[in-house]
């Protein structure tokens, strides 16, 4: 799978580890940065291009990391077509894709260890959207919000 990944300084070390694991597992990785550790960088500079690439289909899924994962999630969700969530548990990593068509997994580089992060990433990438009518209906309502109209 073609996977995008982005981080600021708060998740730099974790991003480097996850990239290695993704490549070892056979995934094609697009690294949106940061490409070097800099305490003065800002997560939107890396997360926005990742979210745009996911929304445009240039990568199938994305992983966004910042110190807590909260800022990356808030930022990614500002891009129409991006469906990002901060996830700390295995169930949500799977269910977010199956029910909500989650396409960007957000992780806190200062809150989740590398073993847990890798488990979350693997679960997220292995999950598939269910296409259930109720989930499609709900996603239609969310998509309507992105274009500024009320869903019916």
Give a structural overview.
This protein is α/β, with parallel strands linked by helices. It is 46% helix and 16% strand. The protein has 6 helices and 5 strands, in the order E-H-E-H-E-H-E-H-E-H-H. It has helices spanning 12-24, 44-55, 70-76, 90-100, 114-126, 133-146, and strands at 2-7, 28-31, 61-66, 84-86, 104-108. It has a 5-stranded parallel sheet with strand order 2-1-3-5-4, with helices on both faces. The protein starts with a strand and ends in a 6-residue tail after the last helix.
Mean pLDDT across all amino acids: 94
Helix and strand element order: EHEHEHEHEHH
Q: Beta-sheet strand percentage?
A: 15-25%
**What is the number of strand segments?**
5
How many helices? The count is 6
Widest β-sheet, arrangement of strands = 2-1-3-5-4
How would you characterize the largest beta sheet? Answer: 5 strands, parallel
Helix content: 40-55%
Low-confidence stretches: none
Through-space gap between termini: 34 Å
> Which value, in Å, is the CA radius of gyration?
15 Å
Which word captures the global form?
Answer: globular
Classification by helices and strands: alpha/beta
């Amino acid at each position: 799978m073609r996977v995008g990944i982005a981080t600021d300084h708060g998740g730099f070390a974790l991003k480097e580890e996850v990239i290695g694991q993704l490549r070892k597992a056979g995934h094609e990785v697009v690294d949106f940065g940061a490409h070097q550790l800099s305490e003065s960088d800002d997560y939107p500079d890396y997360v926005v291009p990742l979210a745009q690439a996911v929304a445009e289909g240039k990568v199938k899924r994305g992983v966004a990391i910042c110190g807590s994962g909260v800022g990356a999630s808030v930022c990614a969700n500002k891009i129409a077509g991006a469906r990002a969530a901060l996830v700390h548990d295995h169930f949500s990593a799977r269910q977010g894709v199956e029910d909500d068509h989650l396409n960007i997994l957000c992780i806190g580089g200062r809150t989740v260890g590398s073993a847990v992060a890798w488990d979350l990433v693997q679960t997220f990438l292995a999950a598939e959207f269910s296409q259930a009518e109720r989930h499609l209906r709900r996603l239609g309502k969310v998509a309507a919000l992105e274009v500024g109209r009320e869903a019916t």
